[in-house]
Write a structure and sequence with these properties.
- It is built from four helices and six strands; from the N terminus they run H-E-E-H-E-H-E-E-H-E.
- With about 180 residues, it is an alpha+beta fold.
- The chain has a domain of about 90 residues: Alpha-Beta Plaits (2-Layer Sandwich).
- The strands form two sheets. It has a four-stranded antiparallel beta sheet with strand order 4-5-3-6, covered by helices on one side.
Amino acid sequence: MRQSTSVIFLAVLFFSCAETKTIQQEKSEPSVVIANNSEQTEKITVEETIDFDKYRTKLGDNKSGSLNTLPNAFVVEETNTILSESDNSGYRIQLISTSDRNRAQKIIGDFNDWIFSSEDIAYKAEAYLIYRQPNYRVHIGDFKTRIQANEFVKFIKRRFNDAWIIQDQIIEDRVPEFVK
């Protein structure tokens, strides 16, 4: 088997390296015959009748000398506005993201039963069921800073160990007093 493979390899190598003859054909130029009223005819090539340089483009022609401008409908004026602290952005804790609405509602029920029966913490966080296609998400709490949310998620992970902090729009009236 090994010997036949090496023989085939050598044969392919030999035949692929052999000289090949190049066939050259006479270049025949297309021509146009112009007949005059006289008996003489003039033979002119196509290249002589059409100015190809007039129609040729170069690679850089598309961008040279032209400015790319946006239509006025898409132009936005620059502003130096900074978002104020009252833009309701903050942090929440997400317990689950699922496509099953019933499972999400069950998690909310479990959370409410647990948080309201727990005496370890004074802050009774609100649970929110949020639908963002294609999933239902259970968010809890309203926190202005990530540090505040991080302190609370440590407590939440005792019961819901897959909980994580997310950035979300919050309701400022529900931010706990001790956290403000």
